[in-house]
């Protein structure tokens, strides 16, 4: 899996490259920037040297040719290096820095704004189906996810099972992001029930046996570690009363599966449906980030109960997508998209389902979800993945 080409294309200047652990940031950098000067802060020796003397970075870079890129891997480990980076950029504007991180928390607290305008922010996501090509299977993506670290492991199931505990050990506990590790573990399990659903902070607090304020803090940690994100409701030119609460997604379908407990009272179809919706969400986020065309991702839900899973809106894009974990399309499956089109006739409406045929039903395109994921490519418009022009 290490040789799998990625769709991510770097900007010309300096940039931050964020992404959860195991998404392949270091692998991509080794492949694309082979002549760069690399400072890996996961290396204990490098960490000690640069945390003790951040100005060492200036000495090292001055000794390198001015055209040499400088990679600082996991820069959040020593945020003080950003001061040195800033000075070097002022001294030598030709120097390009690539600053990777799996957590934005310490950087945000330590002055990342010092580099505003000098280093743009980019993200690396789990694999997209089109990156994997023939190696992609929908069933595997829904159970193991698409994190490169997991898919490239000899024992993917074991690696996935230990993935979250790796974060707990190396990020949450070592960095002191939370005071009570066991409470945070309960929170992770409780919040998995909110995946692909409207977030109720009170319900998560009750299930995790912690206070609501604590859950708000934990949600911030979850987002800072890039393990989850909130999706806001689409309210542009709203004609109806809309809900105000966001939806929550974990960043990878396999990570969701590893966190979500299942027992005799759980319906497999409910878990499968949430995993499928999350898989589509992570593809749409990757498509938007890699495309860099100004698109955004929302969901749509009225107080009256009409809803659409995703709305992609941007300068050249306006598409509403509903995801159904069913092999056939029923009339009631199209209700939310019809309501959305009534309010926004400019939008394209697409139903993604588990069938094998592309259908057209009353102006709504019904597309096999696996075919959609395989066809989704940052160089192509979103409607192209739906079989449109």
Explain what you see:
This protein has 389 residues and is α/β, with parallel strands linked by helices. It folds into three domains: 109 residues, 3-Layer(aba) Sandwich (Rossmann fold), CATH 3.40.50.300; 117 residues, no CATH class; 105 residues, Trna Endonuclease, Chain: A, domain 1, CATH 3.40.1350. It is built from 17 helices and 14 strands. α10 crosses α11, α11 packs across α12 and α13 packs antiparallel against α14. The longest helix has 24 residues. The chain is globular, with a radius of gyration of 22 Å. The chain starts with 14 loop residues before the first strand and ends with a helix. The model has no long low-confidence stretch (mean pLDDT 91).
Observed structural traits:
17% strand, 17 helices, five-stranded parallel β-sheet, globular, 389 residues, alpha/beta, six-stranded mixed β-sheet, Rossmann fold, Trna Endonuclease, Chain: A, domain 1, 3 domains, single chain
Question: What radius of gyration results from the CA coordinates?
Answer: 22 Å
Through-space gap between termini:
32 Å
Please report the total strand number as a whole number. Answer: 14
Structural class: alpha/beta
Shape designation: globular
Proportion of residues in β-strands: 15-25%
Strand order of the largest sheet: 9-10-11-12-14-13
Please count the helical segments. 17
Report the mean per-residue pLDDT as an integer. 91
Give helix % range: 40-55%
Biggest beta-sheet profile = 6 strands, mixed
